[in-house]
């Protein structure tokens, strides 16, 4: 805590261990009203403990417990003029949700089969949240994006407040133009969806309304 005096600092710890640095940031912000943020990086080194099998899991659990304790300490008190930010996100390196093209196909039949799979380039078993963040990264957004629902079912707006930019995203199997009307899409709006969700006519019309990108 003694070395993190800048109240607007982003504190990066490449060897986070049990995330004592994160605890220091949270407690120091409460102490002086600072707006520090933290980025903890830790390899999933095994511990031999079945309850906390890796050091990374110990770090995540420490942050959760610190946040829980701090919330309990404020329970029943008057609301602060400036809401206290005790939120955090956890990410881990993983393989892409996009299918990887294998150019070394033994014959035409195998090549045709792979082409059929790429009608939907997302891997089998993909998870919406994982795809959302991968799309955001591919668009140059940070991991600290906010995600909000819209008036249209299955359409979300993803915003990077640090860069003051946003895009619409839907991972629905089908996209109907008439259902998108409440969004009132403009030329500068970026709309991203699965390529397989649009027929040729819908894709052409949507591309005239906004900046259309497909997965």
Gist of the model:
The protein is 30% helix and 15% strand. It has 5 helices and 7 strands, in the order βαβαααββββαβ. The strands form 2 sheets. Strands 3-4-5-6-7 form a 5-stranded mixed sheet, covered by helices on one side. Strands 1-2 form a two-stranded parallel sheet.
Q: Which terms would index this structure?
A:
five-stranded mixed beta sheet, two-stranded parallel ribbon, single chain, alpha/beta, 7 strands, globular
Instruction: Classify the secondary structure makeup into a structural class.
Output: alpha/beta
The main β sheet shows up as: 5 strands, mixed
Contiguous low-pLDDT stretches (5 residues minimum) are none
**Percent in helix:** 25-40%
Compute the average pLDDT.
91
Layout of secondary structure:
Elements: E1 10-13, H1 20-32, E2 37-40, H2 55-74, H3 108-117, H4 128-138, E3 146-149, E4 155-160, E5 165-170, E6 190-193, H5 200-209, E7 211-214
Parallel strand pairs: 1-2, 5-6, 6-7
Antiparallel strand pairs: 3-4, 4-5
Descriptive report:
- With 215 residues, this protein is of the alpha/beta class.
- It folds into two domains: 1-93, no CATH class; 117-214, no CATH class.
- The protein is 30% helix and 15% strand.
- It contains five helices and seven strands.
- It has helices at 20-32, 55-74, 108-117, 128-138, 200-209, and strands at residues 10-13, 37-40, 146-149, 155-160, 165-170, 190-193, 211-214.
- The strands form two sheets. A five-stranded mixed sheet has the order 3-4-5-6-7, covered by helices on one side. Strands 1-2 form a two-stranded parallel sheet.
- α1 (20-32) packs parallel to α2 (55-74).
- The longest helix has 20 residues, at 55-74.
- The chain is globular and about 60 Å long.
- The protein starts with 9 loop residues before the first strand and ends with a strand.
- 13% of the residues are buried.
- The model has no long low-confidence stretch (mean pLDDT 91).
